[in-house]
Amino acid sequence: MIRHISTVMNKSIEAAPLAVFRFLFGVLMCISIVRFWSHGWIEKLYLNPKWHFHYLGFEWVKVPSPFLTYGLFVICGFTALAIAVGWFYRLNAVLFFLSFTYIELMDKTTYLNHYYFISIIAFILIWLPAHRYCSIDAWRNKDIRVQFVPAWTIDVLKVMLGVVYVYAGLAKLNPDWLFRAMPLTIWLPTKFDLPFFGAIMHEKWVHYGFSWAGAIYDLIIPFLLLYGRTRLFAFTLVLVFHVLTRMLFPIGMFPYIMIFSSLIFFSASFHNKVISAIFSWFNWSKSMFDNGRTLLQKEWRIGQFAQKLLLLLILFQLILPWRFLLYPGNVFWTEQGYRFSWRVMLMEKTAYANFKIVDGITGKRFYVQNEDFLTSFQIKQMATQADFIIEYAHMLGDHFSSQGHQNVEVYVESYASLNGRPSQAYIDPNINLLTIKSDLKNKTYILPLNE
Amino acid sequence: MKKLIGLFILTVIISCQDTPTEVFTDSFDRKAMLVYWADHIIIPSFEAYDKSLDDLVVAKNIFIENEDIASFENLRVAYLSAYVSWQTVSMFDIGKAEEISLRNYTNIYPADENQIQSNIQGQNYDLDLPSNFDAQGFPALDYMLYGLAEDSNAEITLLKGKDFSNYLNELVDRLKSLNAEVLNDWKTNFRDSFINNDGSSATSSTDKLVNDFLFYYEKFLRAGKIGIPAGVFSGSALSNAVEAPYSEIYSKQLFFAGFETIQAFFKGVSFEGVQNGTSLEDYLIHVAEQNNTSSISDEILAQWALAEQKALALGDSFRNQVEVDNIKMLQTYDELQKAVILLKVDMLQALNIQVDFVDADGD
């Protein structure tokens, strides 16, 4: 067994898939950054808000001056391009990972699973020899140029993609999704204006069909992609699935990222054809890269370290999504252990939070108009998630204390509706939120969900 | 490819064969609702408001010509009826009204007395500027007709001054011309684009108008007319922040005009009050029937009935109410507030309408 693993870990394979992955990832990231900028989201999501919500442990990450914020995005877009063409690859991969992750850490209001996915892939790419084939680096430096790389450097990407799909599928195995067809029952009927599909979008069987098909798809697609005989069929499913989700939901670049990422499962000969096609378009030849050299795992300077590090990362990815089991209650309601677990388009939660500032001694009180402090996007995210509510309460407490209010206590009257259930009280309205610290402990002040 | 899509659809069908297929029912007809809203609620309301402004212009002209007590009292009557009529269109902040900020130029209160006085004295002002929002519209008229002096005769004496009558003249004419622009747009272009924008995107007419409806309810009715003067957001009551504080006795009437508009819109009662058409209530019932759940609409209406009960106990003058017995204002606010949760949480989820749509990605 151990010998088997060790052969797997030391096997070599053509580098072409890695080069194509590097190129497509870089290009898509650059497009994502340009798209983000052109939608005015840098302004809207980072520069306009007065206050920002922080990830636990990353409170030190601040939105810098507008100039530097735009600068971050410039770095991000530029390094993505550099990754694509493989120019000063490792440095640019590090810079891309850092700048992208920093941007994501600036405000957790904008958290999306697919941003998290990008951060992980970017981190993995730092450690892969993706620039040693068909890149500017390999073109300029024949010493690093290889045609074959350790197989694990490609497998790690396949495994990571598999983790995303399978865990997204496992997350769908819950009563709301399977037996109430929620939240698709809420979402799909308003898609009546779609061509062709529109007319049936309010049908119950469509809601159930999409729910079950989605769960099955997520659970089996990595395996169908893995085996040569089912691969083409699987890729067609990938196309249909992601194009469909693109039509139904506002999920930006995510479908394209997933579609192109899944090409990593294809054979080296397929990728060689892709590269040849691209190269011949420019009238280049890729023969200089096909030098027959192999980057041997044991001869590769950072190879051993990279392998162990990424193995740990994958292990971590396998464990992290289960942390919700440490908390009592419905994970969709409490959202304890919700993030970083590939719960993608899984619930419809609407909430409303009304904050009360009380003078603890005189009992004098008034209510806060959230829009005085937060953007409408922040207000929406804040109201549905307990950790946001606590952080916001503390910001309000500090603000009103600094305004000269005495003995400030902050209470919230909050209501939430989950997957079509009637609205119900969310946070205990009788708790002074300033007495609560932001931490990972079970949030006992979240009222239980009445089914 | 076609085969694969077929296979995909087949998988979809097979995977849910346990679920009994329901009888085919049409999905809700949003377009019919939009047509009804436009033709039986919104346009008639703007027309009626426009007519009341015509009367106001006439009354103002007669007063400026005669400057006597009879024409002054007549002007005040016309002012009140136009102000009440305004309450029936305020929530429709869509199309031209939104484009030209009709509401901001019509009813931002409390009025800024100093700004009004300096406009009158300085002669050099631009009512288009946002800094003059609270120096025009009905709040400014309320001040001009009731707040300048102790009694009617003293008022008239002041208004005889050329500067004052010019300002009065301009305030009234401006109300009329702004609304004329909005009404004209509804009648020429906007009705068609409104009813044809019958999709489900965040920029569709239904989504936008539902947002307008909620925004009006939360900000202008609940907070503006009741909550802010009652001190809900400041800790201490602000009796000067009531609507129409100078005329004093009309704030309750103005509140009810807005509250009734909200309820009629929700229930689909036509402007004339004779017809019951497709409405948000029907939409909610339709969605609930599809999902075999109970509709939230009954709860919303019941909650409003409670709020109405509390509001009926208020005096005609909210200013006086706030100063003498603010508890009743706070109680009214609380009941109005409870409906916000039903509207913004339950209703929006049922209809899958985004509040304050932000065009960011989801995942």
Write structural notes for this entry.
The complex is a heterodimer of chains A (451) and B (363). Helix content of chain A is 53%, strand content 7%. With 451 residues, chain A is α+β, with helices and mostly antiparallel strands. In chain A, a hairpin with a 5-residue loop joins β3 and β4. By secondary structure, chain B is mainly α. The chains are: A alpha+beta (451), B mainly alpha (363).
How would you summarize the topology of this molecule?
The complex is a heterodimer of chains A (451) and B (363).
Chain A: H1 2-10, E1 12-14, H2 16-38, H3 41-47, H4 66-85, H5 89-106, H6 113-126, H7 136-140, E2 148-150, H8 152-172, H9 175-179, H10 184-187, H11 204-226, H12 228-248, H13 254-261, H14 268-281, H15 303-319, H16 331-334, E3 349-359, E4 365-367, H17 376-384, H18 386-402, E5 408-418, E6 424-425
Antiparallel strand pairs in A: 1-2, 3-4, 3-5, 5-6
Helix pairs in contact in A: 2-4, 2-13, 3-4, 4-5, 5-6, 8-11, 8-15, 11-12, 12-13, 17-18
Chain B: H1 2-14, H2 30-66, H3 69-86, H4 96-99, H5 102-106, H6 113-122, H7 137-147, H8 152-159, H9 162-196, H10 205-227, H11 251-267, H12 280-290, H13 297-312, H14 318-324, H15 326-351
Helix pairs in contact in B: 2-3, 2-9, 3-7, 7-9, 10-11, 10-15, 11-13, 13-15, 14-15
